[in-house]
Write a structure and sequence with these properties.
Layout (H helix, E strand, L loop, with lengths): L1 H13 L7 H7 L5 H13 L3 E2 L3 E5 L2 E4 L7 E2 L1 H9 L1 H11 L4 H10 L2
Antiparallel strand pairs: 1-4, 2-3
Helix pairs in contact: 1-6
Length: 112
């Protein structure tokens, strides 16, 4: 679900529905531990779903983000994954039935 939340937020920024605000972004992914968030963002970057983030390996598999979260953006592959992936559609339907900011963001991005 973390990947979905991240992609929806970045897609809303891409579509001009809102400006990237780190505090809002972190609130949307608030159920994610900071280290896990870094690993997810690195994986998404490696898979080409997002771009603009730069990581450096400190020791072992620990990756340190060396620039600002506001530098990231969704790629065309990320948009395609968000819109066409069956699992993403199921998560969207599940979250649309929830209350809160994410449901509102989904409504804003997808129009219902």
């Amino acid at each position: 679900m973390a990947v979905f939340r991240i992609l929806v937020y970045l897609y809303s920024v891409f579509k001009g529905k809102q400006n990237f605000r780190q505090n809002v972004f972190l609130k949307e992914v608030s159920r994610i531990d900071e280290e896990y968030l870094k690993r997810v963002l690195a994986m998404m970057s490696d898979e080409g779903l997002i771009e603009g983030l730069h990581f450096c390996r400190a020791w072992g598999n620990v990756r340190i983000l060396v620039n600002d979260l506001a530098d990231m953006s969704i790629t065309s592959d990320g948009i395609h994954y968000l819109l066409e992936n069956n699992r993403m559609r199921k998560i969207k339907e599940f979250l649309l039935n929830q209350f809160g900011t994410m449901a509102g963001l989904i409504e804003m991005v997808f129009g219902g």
